[in-house]
Write a structure and sequence with these properties.
The complex is a heterodimer of chains A (about 280) and B (about 210). By secondary structure, chain A is α/β, with parallel strands linked by helices. Chain A has helices at about 1-25, 80-85, 110-120, 135-145, 155-165, 180-195, 210-225, 240-245, 265-270, 275-284; strands at about 40-50, 50-60, 65-70, 95-100, 100-105, 110, 120-125, 200-205, 230-235, 250-255, 255-260. Chain B has about 210 residues and is an all-alpha fold. Chain B has helices spanning about 1-35, 40-55, 55-70, 80-105, 110-120, 125-155, 165-175, 180-205. The chains are: A alpha/beta (about 280), B mainly alpha (about 210).
């Protein structure tokens, strides 16, 4: 029953994205008064490590409520793109904006205040969780909202406990991360990111450090978030997750977006040879 | 005899406590300077640590005691001798603590800083809430080691003429023509270090509620 309703939501999302993509493709501009403004937009992003280009003219926009999966071979630039969008790395050139907040224009970044305001709009879930090992689960989730956002402790605690329960971690509030399984730690880190009330959640290969069983629990809570229309950008190797949950799949290789479109199209009917080769390799 | 050694021990204890009180906090800015991206600052810290670790503490005491006399003509008194001893101990031990702090700070994984950055913690908040508590746990065994060394190093104040326990023991050995005072002094150092060891074990156990 839940599955069916999720499916409807996904199809609606996919349809919306397709329209947007087609509209964009038709005239190549966004002048045709889009109904929604993107939560985050990256335009003509360039990034090199030394003399090695990692991102070459990447343009990507994420609409509210959209779930975007970024797939592709290692070293293709997926993680770097995510790290640039989360301000852990800086672009050499191109623009980055969160809604109406211009973070970087032509590779020139705004001041500290601009960066802080941008950071308050997204959450990031790391491959290896990066929970704070000396804090309890509850404190991991509560600390930043209380200390950084200066919100009321009681209100934050109520939200944190609810989030922990939602992540299926009820009863683990007072445990420290090392007492949890990898899957539990990752779900705690998702709760930590959500407690900041972000507009968009980024996931950087959130299940790569987990075995299949633990992967399933993490993917389950991510599906739940998608069903609630949380805007998500997920770098992943989980093709079934990308196919089933994402509205749009972006295939990156060699620092460029090779192909993107509705999940079903990119994964089941890829147009580009490189995408086909990558997906064939994954199947094998 | 035990009474005399006991009052000598109180002086040793003062050197010990004042040194920790000064050097433990002072080590932190030195460590941060040593890791600073500001090149000259890092170079100064590196030079300071190099001198402090590379020359004998005894000579450093002499230098701090006599340099004001030769350079500025400041008169030498019992007070200035005591002050020179404490200053020398503090700046010497701060260098060692700084290197321990640095090793601890640099052992914290990058991911901790990145998680804190994404959550919007300021640099200071990241350091004091996220990094430092983890550093304390990691460096505690090294700190204990250094503290135990300090207990025994207080006997170096003998060389400059501060009447601490070892000085008293030496005088007693000479006047009583017996090695017993040395044995008792040794027992004092040893028992005190047992206490420190017990305390350190307790703190370590308390921080054992997590591992990473």
């Amino acid at each position: 029953m839940t599955d069916a309703s999720e499916k409807d939501v996904e199809q609606a999302g996919a349809a919306r994205t397709t329209q947007a993509a087609q509209a964009g493709a038709a005239d190549g501009t966004r002048a045709a008064a889009p109904t929604k403004s993107p939560i985050v937009s990256v335009r003509h992003a360039r990034k090199a490590f030394g003399s090695v280009p990692v991102l070459r003219d990447i343009t990507l926009e994420v609409e509210p409520g959209e779930v975007v999966a970024i797939i592709g071979p290692s070293g293709g630039g997926k993680s770097t793109l995510l790290r640039c969008m989360t301000l852990l790395e800086r672009l050499d050139g191109g623009d980055l904006a969160y809604g109406d907040l211009a973070v970087a224009a032509d590779g020139v970044y705004g001041n500290k205040d601009v960066l802080a305001r941008a950071r308050s709009r997204f959450g990031l879930v790391f491959q290896n969780y990066n929970l704070f090992p000396h804090f309890s689960v509850l404190r991991n989730v509560m600390d930043a909202p209380v200390v950084v956002q200066r919100r009321d402790r009681a209100e934050v605690e109520a939200q944190a406990r609810a989030l922990i329960a939602k992540m299926g971690l009820e009863g683990n509030e007072d445990k420290v991360p090392c007492q949890l399984s990898g899957g539990q730690q990752q779900r705690a880190s998702i709760a930590r990111a959500l407690a900041m009330n972000p507009e968009v959640m980024y996931f950087d290969e959130p299940t790569s450090a987990l075995d299949p069983e633990l992967t399933a629990e993490v993917l389950r809570v991510m599906r739940g978030l998608a069903a609630e229309h949380m805007t998500m950008v997920v770098v992943t190797h989980e093709m079934s997750f990308a196919r089933d949950v994402a509205d749009r799949v972006v295939f990156m290789d060699g620092g460029v977006i090779v192909e993107q479109g509705p999940a079903d199209q990119v994964i089941n009917h890829p147009r580009q040879e490189r995408t086909r080769a990558f997906l064939a390799q994954r199947e094998a | 005899m035990c009474g005399m050694l006991g009052s000598g021990f109180l002086v040793s204890l003062q050197i010990f406590s004042l040194t920790l009180l000064g050097a433990l906090p002072l080590g932190l800015p030195v460590a941060l300077a040593r890791m600073s991206k500001v090149r000259p600052l890092a170079a100064i810290a590196r030079f300071y640590i190099s001198i402090m670790r590379g020359t004998p503490l005894m000579l450093q005491m002499f230098a701090i005691y006599f340099v004001p006399y030769y350079v500025f003509g400041v008169s030498l008194t019992t007070d200035s001798k005591w002050q020179a001893t404490i200053v020398a101990f503090i700046i010497n031990y701060a260098a060692y603590f700084a290197e321990i702090y640095r090793s601890g700070i640099q052992s914290i994984p990058r991911g901790q800083y990145e998680a804190a950055e994404v959550l919007g913690y300021s640099g200071g908040q990241t350091f004091f809430r996220i990094v430092l508590p983890q550093v304390v746990k990691r460096i505690l065994p090294s700190i204990t080691n250094e503290v135990i060394t300090l207990v025994k190093d207080t006997s170096l104040a003998f060389s400059i003429g501060v009447i601490e326990m070892f000085t008293v023991a030496k005088q007693l050995v000479a006047s009583q023509v017996s090695m017993l005072p040395f044995a008792i002094a040794a027992a004092f150092y040893w028992v005190f270090n047992l206490l420190i060891d017990a305390l350190a074990t307790r703190v370590e156990r308390k921080l054992d509620y997590y591992h990473d």
